[in-house]
Amino acid sequence: QVQLVESGGDLVKPGGSLRLSCAASGFTFSDYYMSWFRQAPGKGPECVSYISGSGTNIIYADSVKGRFTISRDNAKKSLYLQMNSLRADDTAMYYCARFPRNPEGWGRGTTVTVSS
Amino acid sequence: DVVMTQSPLSLPVTLGQPASISCRSSQSLVYSDGNIYLNWFQQRPGQSPRRLIYKVSNRDSGVPDRFSGSGSGTDFTLKISRVEAEDVGIYYCMQGTHWPFTFGQGTKVEIK
């Protein structure tokens, strides 16, 4: 059974950094594209980035390009999101998901709050 | 960006009655591989989004068969044949064909 567990969210000041992690189990992690979604309070979800199984194909939403970096460690079955230069509008619940085009396996998410 | 327009945005339904949500995309969702990456999600209060339907009409494992998806081109529909109390929540359509992937505004289903 696919299981994804996000962690690393916190309260951070504007301009600060955070690294989110997503631990995967129940499937052959390296075979799958993975993605990060976020959902701001009271809003619909947004896909911020995805990465191919090998890590060679990466794409970002314009809203995070140049500030966020997605990566993965297939040996550790983990997905990461390095978030720099955080802004108030990055405040959201962050989820990882398998199959970016048909995202499944959403975990409970991890909360990122950017506030002074 | 592809705009996904859902209607209605609010859907009060009587228990046991059918419900239908429409989702229209601003352009065709046929991908170069021939697939249509149109998904439906359910988000119950306080919970994470849960995929119900993928590629227009494929129901996820464990999803009750009262949920069905249909459509083609730019018009898609999620139907609930008989609404149950556990169906309360917000339903989103999402296209995964064109980057950036985009979601509809959400339809809030509530019991009358």
Write the layout of secondary structure elements.
The complex is a heterodimer of chains A (116) and B (112).
Chain A: E1 3-7, E2 11-12, E3 18-25, E4 34-39, E5 45-51, E6 58-60, E7 68-73, E8 78-83, E9 92-98, E10 110-114
Parallel strand pairs in A: 2-10
Antiparallel strand pairs in A: 1-3, 3-8, 4-5, 4-9, 5-6, 7-8, 9-10
Chain B: E1 4-7, E2 10-13, E3 19-25, E4 38-43, E5 50-54, E6 58-59, E7 67-72, E8 75-80, E9 89-95, E10 102-103, E11 107-111
Parallel strand pairs in B: 2-11
Antiparallel strand pairs in B: 1-3, 3-8, 4-5, 4-9, 5-6, 7-8, 9-10, 9-11
Structural notes for this entry:
With 116 residues, chain A is an all-beta fold. Chain A is 0% helix and 47% strand. Chain A has strands spanning 3-7, 11-12, 18-25, 34-39, 45-51, 58-60, 68-73, 78-83, 92-98, 110-114. Chain A starts with a strand and ends with a strand. Chain B has strands spanning 4-7, 10-13, 19-25, 38-43, 50-54, 58-59, 67-72, 75-80, 89-95, 102-103, 107-111. In chain B, strands 2, 4, 5, 6, 9, 10 and 11 form a seven-stranded mixed sheet that branches. A four-stranded antiparallel sheet of chain B has the order 1-3-8-7, with no helix packed on it. With 112 residues, chain B is mostly beta strands. Chain B has no helices and eleven strands. The N and C termini of chain B lie far apart (36 Å). Chain A binds chain B through residues 39, 44-47, 59, 61-62, 93, 95, 100-104, 106-109, and chain B through 31, 37, 39, 41, 48-51, 54-55, 60, 92, 94, 96-97, 99-101, 103-106.
